[in-house]
Amino acid sequence: MAEPGAGAPLALFWDIDGTLLSTAQAGVFALEDAAREVLGVEPDFSNLKTPGLTDFQVATVAIEAAGGEPTAATVEAFVRVYERELPGRLHARRGSVLSGVEAILEDLAGREEVVSLLLTGNTEAGARAKLGHYGLLGYFPGGAFSEDGSDRATIAARARDLAAERLGSAPAPERTWVIGDTPRDVECGQAIGVRTLAVASGGASLEELRASDPTVAIAALPAPEAFLELVGHAPSRA
Question: Phi/psi zone of residue 100: left (φ > 0), alpha (ψ -120 to 50 degrees), beta?
Fold first, then answer.
């Protein structure tokens, strides 16, 4: 069967947490550092529910959980302390790159017709810290990040514009994929009218992902050849 290089360029937008890697919740320690510095409290964020949220949304939830008022200034200050503390805190837990990720990224790296970009709720500094810690940063020439209080759909639109800039024209919707592990990742792909690959490797079960109506839902990322077949030749949505 033909590979993606036989057709139009292929744009892949990757989520980070639960899709590419797991920090084993090491980021929670950086959130607690931020609460101490910004709010002057000793929080316990071990049960904080954050899958699919942007870093600014996580900061809002964390501030509320610590009894603070999430004003724009407080959220901004909280995020900046979190970014500063995160690189050092990633060593506190033994996280990992998720199954299949490195083999796929290595295979894609040699294909000029494929562009892999980040589409993440992490801030750019947070994304770089995580990807650098786990040795994945070099696979991504750029991406769209959480820059303010914008929702995931807005971030997705920025990713689409970035792909158009790098490819010279907007990639066809049927050749564009958002790859993530939560229904929110599926929703942001749907918001810009592209295909969605939901992987049950992090924040949601396969059943929960299927309920969000992705183009494809799978239990885990496959081997590189099967991945190329999947994103290059999946049937069009009805």
Answer: left
82 is a domain residue? yes
Distances (CA, A) of 71 to 36, 93, 156: 17, 31, 25
Phi, psi dihedral angles at 188 (to 5 degrees): -70, -30
67 shares its domain with 49: yes
* Ramachandran angles phi, psi of 152, nearest 5°: -65, -30
Residue 238 lies in a domain: no
- 188 neighbors 152 (Cβ within 8 angstroms): yes
pLDDT, averaged per 10 consecutive residues of the chain (238 residues), comes to: 58 97 95 98 92 93 96 97 98 96 95 93 97 98 90 92 91 95 95 97 94 97 95 56
> pTM for this structure?
0.92
The amino acid at 35: A
d(CA 25, CA 47): 10
Task: Give the single-character DSSP code of 48.
Answer: -
Alpha helices in the chain (DSSP H): 27-34, 55-65, 72-89, 101-109, 124-133, 152-167, 183-191, 206-211, 224-233
What pLDDT is attached to residue 233? 52
In terms of domains, do 31 and 13 share one? no
